[in-house]
Amino acid sequence: MNRIFKRSFALTSIVAVIACGKNVENKENETMDNPLLAEWTGPYGGVPAFDQMKVEYVKPAMRKAMQLHLDDIERIANNEEVPTFENTIVPMEKAGKELERAFTYYGIYSSNVSSPEFREVQKELAPEISEYSSKISQNEKLFQRIKTVYEDSKENPLPEAEQRVIDLIYEEFAMQGADLSAEDKKRYAEINKQLSELYTKFSNNVLSDEENYVLYLDEDQLGGLPESYVKSAANAAESRGEDGKYAVTNTRSSMDPFLTYSTERDLREKVWKTYYSRGDNQDEFDNNEIISEILKLRDERVELLGYDNYAQWRLQNRMAKNPENAMDLMMKVWPAALARVEEEVADMQKIADQENAGITIKPWDYRFYAEKVRQQKYDLDSEEVKQYLELGNLTQALFFTAGELFNFDFSPVEQGSVPVFHEDVKVWEVTDKDSGELVGLWYLDPYARQGKRSGAWATTYRSYNELEGGAAVLASNNSNFIEPAPGEPVLVSWDDAETFFHEFGHALHFLSADIKYPTLNSGVRDYTEFQSQLLERWLSTDKVINQFLRHHETDEVIPDELVEKIKKASTFNQGFATTEFLASAIMDLKYHTTDPENIDPVEFEKNTLEELNMPEEIVMRHRSPHFGHVFSGEGYAAGYYGYLWADVLTSDASEAFAEAPGGFYDKEVARKLVDYLFAPRNAMDPAEAYKKFRGRDAEIDALMRDRGFPVPDEN
């Protein structure tokens, strides 16, 4: 997605974006001093004024900023000079700075500090943002100028960076209906407006279910739960006015360890059902009807453009190119994943029978008995491992890895010198280790709280590009670790530690950018996850283990025998992990390659899973009614498969390091990693970039080896 549209889509859960202009005239005086529009001041080339955020500033800021951007676009479109890259594309790249700033705050409110008050604002602004976006994508004069520059470039190619920019911008405008008739453009814009409202409603419904469903436990219901979890649960209950109770919140960070350790099977079932029924409770927050509407509108919209289905339209500029290729990859892995699940369930059932549990393994038993199998097969206790995974040490491990591979140095910024939007947020200065030159700032928002969406993610408040002066990058990582009781350490699971590295990989992708134009910061969805997935591999390297995986009380390095157990168990439970992911990814693609006219999400999900022979002991990682990747916007719609596509690249690239003389810290491979896979962002075709790094295309064999699955026989 090019930068013009990215301003509208990114940083929020809204993906179809848009215009306003409504009441702008009346707001002009009111917004002149709006801090959400003001240029950023202070150190590091200016930083967001997070300390001046107020919800009442959001509407006037967004409305004014959208109008200012539209005014910029009109000036470009009405330029009477013959269209050139310099008088059309360059000013487009520079336009909309006020909106970029306003969207930074909007994104923080949407993802990190949401409130009922903001959600009302969000609901009101969503259709206006959509209208604004359509006014750009459907500006006939603007598109004709872009088209002229594009067609001229085919006769007289531009320098590499400029050619890539015009190709991406022209493609994006064409995909957004710029070539449609006036009547079809009108309907296209109407659809986008309707979708934006539905995306916002879907997202807020999920957030409401996460906030509204909290299970409070008494002391006699804590069987099996680790002490660290108990203390965090007590803290969570106290913060909600339930002193003396223990809160299991309706988020993955709370649900997952509860299902892993609680010996109370009836409570495990309750927590499991509550979590996986988000958006599916037949109440005011139910999302099933919204899904049906979204699918119909998406299908109608791409039909206007001449595509058979939404997935065909969406994947044309992804690495997969078409839904058939994406589905083919998934179906190569699916049978091996199912076979492994069968083995995993048999192992779990055997233990349950040995213990005379008198049960048949159900979905709410999977994590609990998988942990028992892990301990029995590998003598590996996840809770023991957590004692060596303390958040502060892991953060230092991130910095060490970034220093070794990217030559970055991280130093904490003095508290109060840079504004933050919540007291939990910490900030680090990033510099080049050799020159001392400033690279940017890194913000970390680590803890779960009310008003913060679940999961983990990365974003930028300011990206690097030469055109606008190469200002310092402002990158952030956001997690949902359970905040500990005062004085207690934050201990995380191995999976959560990998996710921490994963999201930091996105931040490094932002921080290492070396591009000329803003549009080149855009990403190709089934490629951008590759860089972050690759960084996960450094968590288990010897240098990180020996320096940073230390016991939170004794500071002793994690014992070699425990590390060996972790490595031996690296393919453990891959049946579960792969199947729950693939079920969601396949479902996403099925939704977007099927005529949506008669789709009932409840029945469609049920029937599709039956056709896939989905094991009854596992549920989709993201059931349809809370599948925010796909239905709270369009970033991953028909593209959730991209994590697997990227993981093929990840597995193959990690073998390049493993084979190098210096292993995962080999300087030459690291140089190529930065030069070809991180720094160019979208300045280079992803397939070409990977070939420059690896010397060939990626192969699926490495992925299968990583997961302990049989390598497919090409014959």
TrEMBL record:
Binds 1 zinc ion. It catalyses: Hydrolysis of oligopeptides, with broad specificity. Gly or Ala commonly occur as P1 or P1' residues, but more distant residues are also important, as is shown by the fact that Z-Gly-Pro-Gly-|-Gly-Pro-Ala is cleaved, but not Z-(Gly)(5). The keyword Hydrolase applies. GO terms for molecular function: carboxypeptidase activity; metal ion binding; metalloendopeptidase activity. It is an enzyme of class 3 (hydrolase). Coiled coil: none annotated. Residues 258-707 form the Peptidase M3A/M3B catalytic domain. Pfam families: Peptidase_M3 (PF01432), TOP_N (PF19310). PROSITE patterns: PROKAR_LIPOPROTEIN. Keywords: Hydrolase, Metal-binding, Metalloprotease, Protease, Zinc. It comes from the Bacteria. GO terms for cellular component: cytosol. InterPro entries: M3A_DCP, MetalloPept_cat_dom_sf, Neurolysin/TOP_dom2, Neurolysin/TOP_N, OpdA_N, Pept_M3A_M3B, Pept_M3A_M3B_dom. Its EC number is 3.4.24.70. GO terms for biological process: proteolysis. Residues 74-185 form the Oligopeptidase A N-terminal domain. Belongs to the peptidase M3 family. This is oligopeptidase A.
